[in-house]
Amino acid sequence: MKRVCLWMLAGMMLLLAGCATEDAVGRGVQDVSLTVNDVPNRWTYVSLSAHEVVGSSSLGDTHEDALWMLRTDWDIAFCNGMIRTNSGSSGKGKGGITWTPVDYDDVDNLRAPSYQTDTRQTVTVKSVEIE
Prior knowledge:
InterPro entries: HmuY. By secondary structure, this protein is an alpha+beta fold.
């Protein structure tokens, strides 16, 4: 009797492990592009999941920066060629960005635990195109 129960339990666990949410079933890869206009001296906050700009704030406004740090509805922000991600010192989100000389497809996911959450530093880019 114990063996039958164990096999039934194992079978149920396999069935449950094979279930997927309706959202994940049938979805393929989708190309999406979003144009973000660079407004001088203003941070433009973008949600990658919603594919839209969710707001902006003045460069150097510590009160507005503090409010954006509490929000989780944005992933990345742009201002005067600077980038801010919603993680680490920039916000409570789970996003992040890293520079690497390796192509994206060749990044080793096993090293992910060794990545360090962002700290305050300046990185400037000339232009950004999101596709």
